[in-house]
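TEACHING EXERCISE
Course module: macromolecular assemblies
Task: Read the component lines below, then compare them to the predicted structure of the full complex.
Student: A.B.
Group: 4
Components provided:
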Amino acid sequence: MPSALDQITAPTAPGPETLGGTVPAGAERRARDDLRRQIADLDRRLGELFASAFPRSGLDWGVGAVGGPRVLSTGELERVRDALALRLRDAQAELARRAEVEEANRGLIERMIAAPERHRWVIVSNEDIGERGCRHWHSRPRWGILGILFNWWRVRLSSGCPLAAGLRPPATRVTAPSEMAKKRRKRRPRAPAAAPAAAPKPAAKRPAAKVPRKPIADERPAAPWGSFPLVELVVLFGLVLFVAGFFLVDGERGTQLFATGLVIASLAGLELSIREHFAGYRSHSTLLAAAVAVAVMLGLYYLADLSPTASLAAGAGVGALCFWALARTFQNRAGRMVKLR
Amino acid sequence: MSAGAEASGETPPQLGWVAPELVEEFPGLALHYLAVERGSGRSTRELRQQLRVLSDRFSGAQAINLRHQPIPWAYRVFYRHIGLDPDQQRTPIEELVLERMQHGGFRSRSLLDDALTIATVESSVAMRAFDADRVTGSPGIRTTEPGEGLEGRPGELPAGTLVIADEARPLALLFGAVAAGRGVRPKTKRTLLAAIQVTGVPALAVSEALWLAAGTLEDG
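Instructor-supplied answer key:
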C-alpha cells in the first residue's frame, strides 16, 4: 500500500499567512487548489482506514482544526494537510502493529483448542483478535477440581454481552437548524467521558488468574482468596468424609463423619451460591432463603424450645422475607429477577 | 423585497448569491433556498412514526461507513478546507447519525426540525432554516467585513468569517450558529429553507432535500 505521504507534493508557490479578506489570483490560488485536493485524498484514506479499523478502539483519529469557517491561507492548508498525513501514518502504523498481535492471538486460540492442558487458564477475547462482541475462549479444567487433579482441560467458548448498566451516555448537543429546538431541549447532566480503551495485548501473556478483568455479570465472580481452588478442595474433603461415613465407618462415628461431610460440602456450596448471587451472576434466592429458614427453624426448635409448628411457621416466615430481599438484591445487581444458566 | 416573496408556493428552489472571491476559491459552493408558507409547530404523530422508520433503516455499520459515501465525505472535506474539524464540529448528517446511534433513534423536536432531520438523513445535504419575513432580499454566502458581528452574539466576528447573509446582515455562520431572531420562532409564519451545496454534492440532491423538507413542513 503506498504511503499517503508519497502522494503529497509541495505547493507550487509560497503564500501569505492570512488572506485578510482578499483572494490573490493565479499561482497562489492554484497552490491552494492543489492542497485542497491533497486534503480531500487524505481525508478519504483516513475514512477508509477508520471503517476498516472498526471495532478496534483507542485509536486517535482527531485532526485539529485551524479555526473557521473561513478561507484558509496556503500555510494553514499546509498545516491541515500535514496533520492529516501524520494522523494517517500513525493510524496505519498502529493498525499494522495491532494486526500482528491479533494474528498471534488467533494462532494462540488454535493452539489452545488443540492442546488446552498446555495453556491453562489462558483467556483470549474477541477484542484480542480485533473482532466485536464479548465472546472469549477460556482454557479451564473439566469438572473443576477433578480436572485439575487429573489434568482434564478444555477450552470453553463464552458468548453474550452483559446487559447495559451504569449511567446513560452523555446527551449529544445537536445544532438544531431552527431556534425551536433550543426552546424545547432540556439540559441533562453530562456523564464523564470514558477513557479510550487500551490497545490489545498479547493474550498469551495474560493468564486468567493473574489479570484483573472487568467484573461483568457474564463471568463467574472471582473468590476473595484468588485463584486457589479452596471451595473445590473443601467440597472434595466433605465428599471424602461423606463417603467414608456412609461406606467405610460403622456405628455412631460413621454417622458423625457422614453428617460432618454433608455440612462441610453444603457450606462450601453455600459460599459459592452467596458469591454468585450477590455478584448478579446467577440467582440463588430460593436456596439461600431456604438455608436461612432451616437455620432459624432448627435454632428456635433446639435452642428456644419452641414447638415444631411454631418453629416451622417462624422459619417459613423468615424464609419468605429472605426470599423477597434476596430476589430484590439480585434484581438490582443483574437487572432481572431470575437468571438461570 | 424579501426572499420569501420571490420564492413561495410552487416556485422551484432558488439559487442564492455567493461572493465573487468565494466563487473563485470554492467553485462548487452554492446556496439554494426555498420559502414555505408556514412556520414550525408541534410535530405530528405521522412525522414521529416516519422518524422511527428512518431510525430503523440506520444501523451501526452504515454509520461507520458514512464517511465513505460521496455527499457526507464532500462536506467533511469542505469542513477541513474552511478550517473546521468535522470530528469536533460534526457535519449535519454525521451529527444526526451520531445522535441516532447514541439515543437509539432520531429525536423528534418540532415540525420544522423533524422535517429538516428527514431531509438531511435522506439526502445528506446540510440545511438551515430562517424566518423568511426577517430576511432582507435574497440570501447568499460571503465573508464578513471588519467590525461585523452576529446578532445575539457578543463581540465582532473575525474578518473573513464565512457566513450565510442576506443583503443587509449576516444570518448565520456557515454550518454554525444562527443570528438571534433570524431563525424560526414559534410566531414565524413563513420559513426560508436553505441548503448549502459544496463541491461533490450534486444539485439534484440539494433540490431533493429542499423539496423533501418543504413537503414535510407543508403536510405537517
